[in-house]
Amino acid sequence: EKGGFDWFMRKEIYEQPKAVADTLLGRHDENGRLTLDEVRISEEELRRIDKIIIIACGTASYAGLVAKYAIEHWTRIPCEVELASEFRYRDPIVGPTTLVVAISQSGETADTLMAIRHAREQRARVLAVCNTNGATIPRESDAVIYTHAGPEISVASTKGFLTQIVACYLLGLYLAQVRGTKFGDEIASTMAELAAMPDAIASVLEDMDPVLKLAADFAEERVVLFLGRHVGYPVALEGALKLKELAYIHAEGFAAGELKHGPIALIEDGLPVFVVIPPRGRDMLHDKVLSNLQEVRARGARTVVLAEADDDEVLPYADVLVPLPKVSTLLQPLLATVPLQMFACELATLKGHDVDQPRNLAKSVTVE
Ligand code: BG6
């Protein structure tokens, strides 16, 4: 049933191109307009939405953090992301013009369920992004976008995460279409970029040898840091979470721009630091993170750099380079996360851990 793999997790990592393709399937009508039939909230109502709050736990919350960048950029609706376990205890400002988006692979996570119940009591519209047909969270929501990742067995989420990002992007584009903040051809070009992602992810998966070797080199490490900026920041958080969950290593993800405000004090000789470098583009993001990379390298960090394959500027500062295909900034998390998943999976395997059932964790946590 593991299809020849040692772990469900590894199998599920390799299933990501298909999972993403399946999640994108059938999202157009005959005129090329984006259609999300499962979003059973009228266009009229969607035009009145003045705030979006994404709630989720764990890996799903990092998908939410990625989605915030795209949704705000495309729709110009303010979008917050909140951990489900914090949401209802802070008396959140929620009303009939708030769209609450609950992201949950299992659809059964108690913290997320309690949060959407609270949101509905305040008359918010609730949309679930879920991978499990008929689970409690989608049943208790006004609308649902299903991710079509197929069953995810490994406790640590992989294809669940990538497809959650894709589903949230579809939602963002759909809202932009309904509200007229982005026009047909712009939506079509982003959809075309998304449609190219399964192949891009597959090409990342073809070259996992450097990552496997890295896991062997880092097997004795006690601390690993991850840096990213913009959508690369949640990727850093996810890379760190995977190492905590699977390899039981103390790992932290930081926003690269925050480095100078504290975390740089941690850098010492030989400390492994993963850095997610944004694609080169019109903004300054790439250069800013490049200078963060230089700063940690100058202080002795051993750097693992995830960057566009032809990004020569990073080479002098990379102890190990993990090359990524060229994509736009917003889509890079769909690629950059994959080597980090594999790294954690391999490291935990080398340490003799049960990768699919890490200690103290459960696939869906049905208590608050
Ligand atoms: C945790 C799992 O307890 O629940 C994580 O160990 C997962 O892997 C989180 O990300 C949220 O789960 P779900 O099903 O709500 O996405």
From TrEMBL:
Residues in SIS domain copies: 42-181, 214-358
Keywords: Aminotransferase, Cytoplasm, Glutamine amidotransferase, Repeat, Transferase
Active site location: 363
GO cellular component: cytosol
Primary localization: cytoplasm
Molecular functions per Gene Ontology: carbohydrate derivative binding; glutamine-fructose-6-phosphate transaminase (isomerizing) activity
The protein's name: Glutamine--fructose-6-phosphate aminotransferase [isomerizing]
GO biological process: amino sugar biosynthetic process; carbohydrate metabolic process; fructose 6-phosphate metabolic process; protein N-linked glycosylation; UDP-N-acetylglucosamine metabolic process
Gene: glmS
Catalytic activity: D-fructose 6-phosphate + L-glutamine = D-glucosamine 6-phosphate + L-glutamate
Organism of derivation: Microlunatus sagamiharensis
Parent-record interval covered: 263 to 630 of 630
Entry's EC annotation: 2.6.1.16
Top-rank taxon: Bacteria
Annotated compartments: Cytoplasm
Broad class of enzyme this protein falls into: transferase
General function of this protein: Catalyzes the first step in hexosamine metabolism, converting fructose-6P into glucosamine-6P using glutamine as a nitrogen source.
Subunit (UniProt): Homodimer.
